[in-house]
User: Fold these one by one.
Assistant:
Number 1:
Amino acid sequence: MSRSQQLDRPGPPAGPPGDDSGCTILHVDMDAFYASVELISRPELHGTPVIVGGGNRGVVLSATYEARRFGVHSAMPMSRARRLCPQATVVAPTHGRYSQVSAGVMEIFRSITPLVEPLSLDEAFLDVAGAVRRLGRPAEIGTLIRDRVADEQGITCSVGVATTKFVAKLASTRCKPDGMLIVPAAGVVAFLHPLPVAALWGVGEKTEKELVRLGLHSVGDIANTPRSTLVRAVGQATGSHLHALAWGRDERSVVPHEPDKSIGAEETFASDVDDPQVVRRELLRLCERTAARMRTHGLAGRTVSIKVRFADFTTITRARTLKEATDVAQEIYATARGLYDALGLDRARIRLVGVRVEGLADSGTTPRQLLLGERSRGRREVEQAADRAVARFGRGTVGPASLVTSDPAAPPDPSRPPDPSG
DNA sequence: TCTGGGGTCCTCTCCCTA
DNA sequence: TCTGTAGGGAGAGGACCC
């Protein structure tokens, strides 16, 4: 018996038997991905409500369909989810495991076609035009993928098959869970027009409100509205974009590797913080984490930005562009700390801080001007050595002293006079 | 009713330069 | 030399996606 049979899958649902000619774009989306991965190691929870999430101020990362029946959905505050479904088993996320399963799934995709564009851990676009002669029609390839994911990874996925990315993505959403939906080229408009405006890629809460205010409720309404009217309502880019999508026009191709444009990290405090020393220490930790990830990816960046969210949820960002790209945590921290100090916050209650580095380029091809008197083996080499130690002995084995002692004092900042507390 | 974390993209504004 | 203007880059904030 195959794993797909063991999973007790209901079989292909409801898609119109349709003509899949030219429908070479597949969107594959794992069903309740994090929750499904947790069920692999806890099969006794199959068929019960399970919520993946955690922290006293966290949100739901994923929930089984049994939990969703109670109104639980991802991004919902955990406190609310617990109230809606008190009988649910709450599981803390295990991100390493999700990455493992995701890598296995992407490997399956790449054995079908090299044209795989991952969107996140749990979904990807595939262009299977080049695989049709070898593996059969797009619908057959979709079935093959669903079976292999179930057999080899023990989870289910849904597949949308269409002529464009946008329609394929909508199709996979409409056939969840564990389904496949083919939208033939001739049926695109009939498929799209009855859908609500929020189905369109790029329409969130605010834009939906604005469109409904104009009396536009369905995708068909958008399609039959002059583009100039849409542009006036929601802006040039969004207006043109929505009008094109509403007629099924989407020129984007499947791009296997898009380089990262920014890398960052942010953290919500367990409770609001008004001590600048605590905030600075958190900034340092985030800079360390960001820089380590940049070095792992071989990237360096020029623009450092910080984000501060206050207790009332208002959020501000500040950014500064450096003369040269860097992947050194201490340089990123010096800039981030400068930006934070320049805010001049006086015991403001802070909920979250974040650090992000933009303007990324390959660190191997990014020239570094050695300053007069600067030692050739400096902070960068120290941090690279720390990377090697962490890779060998695990996270937390090496790091700045200020992060491993109870002293909240900030570390030495090259742009400032010596800090008496540090 | 309480809102994570990691991202991308767009719009607006300001400043500098030609 | 002064003024107006257009364009580009940077910065800030917002909306959106998963």
Number 2:
Amino acid sequence: MGVRKVRAAETRAALQEAAREQFVQRGFLNTKITDITAAAGRATGSFYDHFTDKDELLKELLTDMHAQARERITAGDHPREHDLTDRAHLHSHLGAAWHVMRANLPVVVALYEQAMADGPRSGRLWQRLVEDTAMFRDHLEYLREQGHRLPGDPVLVAAAMGGMLSTLAYAIMGSGATGLPDDEIVDTLTSLLLHGLAGPAAK
Amino acid sequence: MGVRKVRAAETRAALQEAAREQFVQRGFLNTKITDITAAAGRATGSFYDHFTDKDELLKELLTDMHAQARERITAGDHPREHDLTDRAHLHSHLGAAWHVMRANLPVVVALYEQAMADGPRSGRLWQRLVEDTAMFRDHLEYLREQGHRLPGDPVLVAAAMGGMLSTLAYAIMGSGATGLPDDEIVDTLTSLLLHGLAGPAAK
DNA sequence: GTCTATAGTAAGATAGAC
DNA sequence: GTCTATCTTACTATAGAC
């Protein structure tokens, strides 16, 4: 590879990395192109040699995250029959989701803000929620087929779980607001989603 | 009251009402001052005779909502001892929250977007979440004092519930995305938060 | 108080030298 | 490919006539 090409790749990577920082620092919508280039130590114009706009940059970050998520999923091998009413299984799912979100907080933040940017009327946030919780939904539908009585429509239940997770990720990660370690947060969410406020029947 | 004053009050109200529409239509951040004045059928400049900026207008809408919420709360009379592990009580709480959010969707939308606008680092969304779920938290802390074993830290559990509710409100209301009636949504959330995915012990 | 017209500002995006 | 300099656009906010 030529020297020029290497330089270009470096700049590209520097811009992406700077964007990650800035998205967490300022939020996605609030991050200006100049914030990114400044943080990367490049000139404003250089941005446009690599990306057409902020959305395109985000799309590439998203691809990375998807690859990462897929890897983690297939590593553990996820058949549809995973039983979400089993504490170990549920805990592992929530833990994985939390882990991937933390590793890709800038992307989570950006997607969330982007989905909200068009307003509630657009239905874009709902679409995101449904897409991102497809796995939960599959597991829930399987349970239902097995005769298990769910709290309600699997799509809604899955979306509710996803909404809880992503909002908390946004609110907690990066600000360390709660002071609680990740383990404890995942434990709490597992308990809440498994047996609810009432707790397991046996006291 | 003089004619001039009446006219002014009318314009003021028209601007607020137009803002409500626009916030739901376009989202809060995306709504420009000119969108509001245009929707209200007034000139751009008139906006500034009544509000210094968008945030101030929102603050007034918020006051209305608080009054409304307070009224609904004191109407039902909410002592700290309300037992959230009792289905009827939990259902009534969630239903009330859902109802107030629907009646004030523009405000919910705006506050949510506003809280996210500063980015995750600011901790503003977490702050909102904690503030808005104070009531849940109180009830949960009471339960804990009574020896009931909660899923985890009451602050976190309450915030998780609030995050789930507000995200779903944003995603569902106004787009009617799910096709489900409000009753069914509240029922589902009640079941999920009361006994979790596993459901009540007795099958 | 409300309007029209416009000044001011911030950010996205491009042109052209190196 | 990267830079500096600049054009363009969209919006906020104000000035001044009515």
